[in-house]
Each structure stands twice: as C-alpha cells, then as structure tokens.
Design goal:
The structure is a homodimer of 133-residue chains. The first copy, chain A, contains six helices and two strands; from the N terminus they run αααββααα. With 133 residues, chain A is mainly alpha-helical. Chain A has a domain of 91 residues: Arc Repressor Mutant, subunit A. The first copy, chain A, has a two-stranded antiparallel ribbon with strand order 1-2. In chain A, a hairpin with a 5-residue loop joins strand 1 and strand 2. In chain A, helix 1 crosses helix 3, helix 1 packs across helix 4 and helix 2 crosses helix 3. The radius of gyration of chain A is 17 Å and the shape is elongated. Chains A and B meet through helix 1 and helix 5 of A and helix 1 and helix 5 of B. The structure holds iron/sulfur cluster (2 copies). Chain A binds a DNA duplex (30 and 30 nucleotides) through helix 3.
Chain lengths: 133, 133
Amino acid sequence: MKYSKATNYALHTMLYLAVTSPNQRVGVQPMAEKLKVSPTYLSKILTQLVKAGMIESSPGAGGGYKLPPHWEEISFLDIIHAIEGPVSLFDGCLNDHPDCLIQNVMVSAEEKMEEELKQKKIAELAKKAPPVL
Amino acid sequence: MKYSKATNYALHTMLYLAVTSPNQRVGVQPMAEKLKVSPTYLSKILTQLVKAGMIESSPGAGGGYKLPPHWEEISFLDIIHAIEGPVSLFDGCLNDHPDCLIQNVMVSAEEKMEEELKQKKIAELAKKAPPVL
DNA sequence: CTATTAAAGAGTTATAATATCTATAATATC
DNA sequence: GATATTATAGATATTATAACTCTTTAATAG
Ligand code: SF4
Ligand code: SF4
C-alpha cells in the first residue's frame, strides 16, 4: 500500500519543469542525473506523462520535454492518475453484494483524499521556488 | 497502489464477527470457508488483529476468536493499520529537503482519507445487518 | 491424556515494480 | 542528403513484495 517510485519521479520532474523552465525544452538526461535514476527508465515514465497530456515532447536535436500551455491547471491528482492509472484502492471483492457497505466506506474515504490532491496544483508549489532537486 | 487482500480479509472477518456473533467465539475454519481462503493464511491475518487488540483469541476446544469489549469503537482505520502497519503512502524521498513541499501535500491528502476511515466504525455497518459473506 | 484450536516458523509461488538493453522513429543542423 | 541528437517502443532481466502452504509448537477444555 504505497505509491510507486514512478509516481514519485513523475511528481519531481513535473515540479522541476515548473520551477526551472516552464517554457524551455529540457532533455531527459539532466533530469535523470538530478533524480539519480537511469535515463531510459525515466524516459518511460515521461512517455506516460506525455500520453496523459501532462507534458509535451519533441525528438531530434534541441528536443526534449516541456510543460503544455495549460500547465498551471495541472494537479497532483492528474499526475498520479497518469502514472498509477485510474486506481481504486480497494477491490478485493468476492461476492458482489449489491450496494456493498465496505466498498462504500473505502471509496468515500478515497474520494476525500482525491479532493485534496485535485486542489493542489504544481504551479502553486512552484511559486515557492523550492529546492526541488 | 492498492490495499492488500489481507486488509480486505481483515475487514470482512471483523464485520462478520460484528454481524453474526459479537460475544460468541468462532473458529477460523468457518470463516475461511466463507471467505474462500485457506485457514492457515487467514489465521496469520487474525493473529495480526489479535496483536493489535482488534480481536481476542483463545486456543483449545471451543476456542476461537471474538470481539473485545471495546469493539464498538473499532474503526476502519484501526483495522487497516493493524494489517498494513503505520503506512505512509509516499516515501520516495531522495534529498531530505527541509519542509518538503511534495511530501506536505501527500501527507495532508492522506490525512483527509484517514479522518474519514477513523469515523467509520464496523459497529455502525453491522447495525445494517448486511449480507457480508 | 486427548482432542481441539491458535501461534509461529520456514519455505514456496505468484505477481508486480523496477530497471536495463536494444532497436526504431523523428527532428534539427550542417 | 548525411549526421548527430533525442524521444519512443519492445523485449527482457532483476528485484521486491504479496500471497499462500506446510509443518511444528503451544495452550486449553473435557
Ligand atoms: S461485502 Fe462488499 S467487498 Fe465484501 S464480498 Fe460483499 S460486495 Fe464484495
Ligand atoms: S522535494 Fe521532498 S520528496 Fe523530493 S527530494 Fe526534496 S524533500 Fe525529498
């Protein structure tokens, strides 16, 4: 019951882009160095973010990744969902009782967490210019 | 990023005890049958619950498990913590920056969820006498 | 003492996360 | 067009954790 390291890397790179270069492209190597993770692995994570519309990519010389136009609206929840998928924390159901009481509790609790994660935008954190990496 | 099946089994057995026999002892075999899980495996989970004070056990003939005197106060969060341990959903930290912004967000979101899980008691669900198993 | 039941230990299997290697495709620059 | 650069994709290996089993031990009631 833990968020994956991939999610952690995704959050860090997003915050990194927001803090350092919201408009400029940056390749995967420098970020992989900062995060102390292999470029190929980080690349896979960034590709997932691209597909989810969290960042934009361009190949070729001078290419790299940059934030999309709407980047100030991107929330923690968006990033987490991009990596973890549309998670439901609880799904060990066996019998499919109608209107399951256990699942109701778990889902409503999960929603409380998601509300909070939806309100928190990386742009908001970036304003504080933290030493993110 | 999912709760373990063990947590699921724990929630179901607790609710089962609360619904069927709040005072009477019941062995692991009947419950394992209902849950379609092996008795030895369920036994390990129940032992964790015993150590966390969620249930009481007694060996020997006529023994088994029963809820403790304070069972009506037991929350979902209590049960989850008993199985998952004192979880922190997020811990992929690399640099230990002071007053980490990312971790602050994740922790506060997690607390929102835990508040909800702390308010939900199994006794409350048991009153509705659901077809739990 | 014997039957019954929980607890504990060691081990196995299954599944998912993590990471690497290699090959391919796209773009810019010359 | 040739070359260097960079992202993407596929296959695969490694590691970690969850899930489960088997066996032994301990405790209790009758
Ligand atoms: S109680 Fe809920 S989770 Fe459990 S078997 Fe019934 S529907 Fe599924
Ligand atoms: S930003 Fe937070 S989680 Fe990331 S390295 Fe710094 S302290 Fe750790």
